[in-house]
From TrEMBL:
Entry cofactors: Mg(2+)
EC number, as in UniProt: 3.1.21.7
Binding of Mg(2+), residues: 41, 114
Highest taxon listed in the record's lineage: Bacteria
Residues under site feature: Interaction with target DNA: 84
Gene3D superfamilies xrefs: archaeoglobus fulgidus dsm 4304 superfamily
Protein name: Endonuclease V
Described purpose of this protein according to its UniProt entry: DNA repair enzyme involved in the repair of deaminated bases. Selectively cleaves double-stranded DNA at the second phosphodiester bond 3' to a deoxyinosine leaving behind the intact lesion on the nicked DNA.
Length: 232
DNA sequence: GCGACAG
DNA sequence: ATCTTGTCGC
């Protein structure tokens, strides 16, 4: 069987693989009771030479208003071997993310990933790809749009506008443009694996703290970019 | 041919 | 993604 993250694939083969894998992604809710939520993100060091994957595991539910307890953290660094190509991001980031996950002692029931879920040209963004490989429910939380069209979401936290794109059978909703914080540019939420859009949006909103990004992704972002110690 | 383009 | 200081605003 072809590995889900074979980085020795040509762009054409990678695209064909994504089309096949997209058929395995589950778009309906199927998640175990949540007690641990993971945040995943990838950063780079030394001008991109080194890929740095970070996973942060938070306890659910939070102790207070957006006050999550960090249960565990894991970082994995390795030489970067793939360039960034729009639409093929998972081949560049998933291998390192998997290595970071292997370092965890706790197994989360849900993971929020920095990037798109099914809001992808072939409906297999990095969040979906990772969820499929880890056999875990995942949600994609991106800061920018990759594909699809949308209107402007309302001004209040939690307001969202559907992200739609044309598919084989016509127009389909692939994600939500969510206002995670008043007066701030919205984030792009899309199901990764094993949950529907409404459930994905609900979890992201439930994980919001005071900032634009939900806590799992925000903390993983800081760890991946070593912003947690880079302060001086 | 001309844009658009997750991280 | 990353390179980077101060600055405006709640």
């Amino acid at each position: 069987m072809t590995p889900l993250h074979d980085w020795n694939l040509s762009p054409t083969e990678a695209i064909a693989l994504q089309r096949r894998l997209a058929g395995r992604v589950e778009h309906t809710d199927r998640l175990a009771p949540v007690r641990r939520i993971a945040g995943v993100d990838i950063g780079f060091e030394q001008g991109g030479e080194i890929t740095r994957a970070a996973v942060v595991v938070l306890a659910w539910p939070p102790a207070g208003e957006g006050r999550f307890e960090v249960v565990e953290q894991a970082v994995h660094r390795e030489p970067t071997r793939m360039p960034y190509v729009p639409g093929l991001l998972s081949f560049r980031e998933v291998p390192a993310a998997l290595a970071a996950f292997e370092r965890l002692e706790t197994r989360p029931q849900l993971a929020l990933v920095d990037g798109q879920g099914i809001a992808h040209p072939r409906r297999l963004g990095v969040a979906s790809h990772l969820g499929l490989w880890l056999d875990l429910p995942t949600i994609g939380v991106a800061k920018k749009r990759l594909c699809g069209r949308h209107g402007e979401p309302g001004p209040a936290r939690g307001d969202w506008a559907p992200l739609v794109d044309d598919g084989p059978g016509g127009e389909e909703t692939i994600g939500a443009v969510l206002r995670s914080r008043r007066g701030v540019k919205p984030v792009f939420v899309s199901p990764g694996h094993r949950l529907c859009l409404e459930t994905a949006v609900a979890w992201v909103v439930a994980c919001l703290g005071r900032t634009k990004l939900p806590e799992p992704t925000r903390l993983a972002d800081r760890l991946a970019s070593r912003r947690d110690q880079k302060r001086r």
